[in-house]
Amino acid sequence: MRQVLLTAVALISTLSLAAPIPTQASQNQAQVKRLLETGVCSGCDLRGVNLSGAHLIGADLRNANLRGANLRGANLEGADLEGANLEAANLTKVFASGTTFNNANLTNANLTEAHLHNAQVDGAVMIGTNITGADGFDINLGIGGGE
Predict the structure, then answer these.
(1) What is the rounded distance in angstroms from the CA atom of residue 46 to the CA atom of residue 69?
(2) Quick check: is 79 in a domain?
(3) pTM of the model
(4) Is 113 inside a domain boundary?
């Protein structure tokens, strides 16, 4: 009887270890799906996700963590990224007309050839941000930084 009990415990322990454990990547993918379907992902953890070429017009990404995300060529027209963490994000050739980046962290972000017409960038941290070839007009720019 004791042998059967030990075998059962060992089998259950082994099976519980084999059960899928949600990974950061799978959780990120669920949040990416939500963002693409609803346009709302305020406060989401989207670190390192690939959103290149995504249509995120009017998306709510306030306080989202997009650190290291690939947004190359994405359409962010009218999107709200207030307080978002875009550190080291690839924003090359994004279309960000009317986009809000107020108080966002754009440290080491790549905004090469970005279109930033009527963008709001008040209080954003832009240490090491690459804006080579970016164009924009009527930009509300009040850049903050580390003390």
Answers:
(1) 7
(2) yes
(3) 0.78
(4) yes
